[in-house]
Write a structure and sequence with these properties.
Keywords: DNA-binding, Sigma factor, Transcription, Transcription regulation. InterPro entries: RNA_pol_sigma-70-like, RNA_pol_sigma70_r2, RNA_pol_sigma_r2. This is RNA polymerase subunit sigma-70. The chain has 218 residues and is an all-alpha fold. It has two domains: 111 residues, Orthogonal Bundle (Rna Polymerase Sigma Factor, Chain: A); 78 residues, Arc Repressor Mutant, subunit A. The protein has nine helices and no strands. About 9% of the residues have low confidence.
């Protein structure tokens, strides 16, 4: 069986020669279906929106964009790590991520009409359930913001104290490189070391967050 890179090269060749490439492209993106679902769930968690049923629509949207523009735009070089090779899978997952972000950003804007004004120029009356929901949402946003701040503070410490683990974590969790083989290639390490570095990074981050909370409570 062809590797992802080999199959992508065959697709690019077929497209350049005006041959049918859709079947091969379908096979390639099918390999990335599970990784795409993982990316979509992360975006759903960040926006606190969406359902499992959305994943198929977002995936199909990403495939359409990949077919329309992505095949020509992919250059095989990482945008975030100059000089490092990028895989077509990483490139596609970035498209998936942006498709999901666009979807839930639009939903949020559509569901947040702002302050409505009545016919007499007075602010629209807010019902008790709506007020309670607004308070709950505000509290949830505050808690999420606090957790978000704790994470990035811990992340800065990880980069300073354990740069190797931070580099692996950045690729795997921040840049949507959900394949340890791709992380290993990007960093010039073995797949086993990629697993170990990501695992250690997670442990350090959890420790830093716990320590920060203990200091705040002291």
């Amino acid at each position: 069986m062809l590797t992802d890179d080999e199959l992508f090269a065959d697709i690019s060749r077929r497209k350049a020669q005006g041959q049918d490439f859709k079947r091969a492209l379908g096979e390639l993106v099918f390999r990335w279906r599970d990784a795409s679902t993982t990316v979509i769930r992360r975006v759903q968690g960040a926006f606190m929106r969406g359902s499992p049923d959305d994943a198929d629509e977002i995936f199909q949207d990403a495939v359409a964009k990949f077919m329309a523009k992505g095949l020509d735009q992919f250059r095989g070089v990482s945008e975030l790590m100059p000089g490092k090779a990028a895989s077509p899978k990483t490139f596609f997952l970035r498209i998936v991520k942006h498709c999901a972000i666009d979807r839930y950003r639009r939903q949020r804007e559509e569901l947040d009409p702002g302050n409505e004004i009545g016919d007499e120029g007075d602010e629209a009356e807010t019902s008790l359930p709506e007020a309670n929901r607004a308070v709950a949402e505000s509290r949830a946003r505050a808690e999420q913001s606090e957790a978000h701040g704790e994470y990035w503070t811990a992340w800065e410490r990880l980069k300073e104290e354990h740069p190797n683990e931070a580099a692996a974590w950045d690729l795997y969790h921040h840049q949507d490189v959900d394949d340890h083989e791709a992380v290993a290639r990007a960093l010039g390490i073995t797949v086993v070391n990629s697993y170990k570095r990501v695992s250690r990074a997670q442990a350090w981050l959890k420790l830093y967050i716990v320590e920060a909370r203990q200091r705040d409570e002291a």
